[in-house]
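Protein modeling request. Please complete all fields; requests missing the sequence field cannot be processed.
Requester role: graduate student
Desired output: 3D structure, token encoding
Chains: 1
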Amino acid sequence: MSSSVMESQLCQNFHRECMAAINRMVNLELYASYVYLSMSYYFDRDDVALRHMAQFQREQSRKEREHAEKFLKYQNRRGGRIILQDIKKPERDEWGNGQEALECALQLEKTLNQALLDMHKLATEQNDPHVSMSGTAWHSTLHCTETGPGPQWSYADLTSDVKSDDLVHNWSKTEIFCQ
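Delivered output (179 residues):
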């Protein structure tokens, strides 16, 4: 081929806009991982010292990185091309108290969820059933309601209830799974 980017023989009915949307999701998931990592090490500082909040946010960072890796693997499996972008620096370096950080995390999760919904909408418009909401279980496996020690909880629940590091410690010890 004469072009610098070879077309994959696996690529079939995979619209370029869908490929680009997946690449944007990778970037957003890595950004979220970066934000949670920043939160984690902020709460691990000796002058803040919320050890369990630090552990909780470090785990969130790991999960977001895994989400990005799932998108990268999917892009390769479909024959798409991975185009990595610069990861934006978190908008802040100081996260205040636990509640303030969790409120920021809630907004970030809403942004991730909306981006995922937008990607599914685009895929539906482009007749790509593999990426559309009906063709994947991504939405439920990547960003879903998680179950903690009691009834269903989310970042919204954490922000309304968190008053101490002990509460985050209790949640972080609980197995979290999607329904």
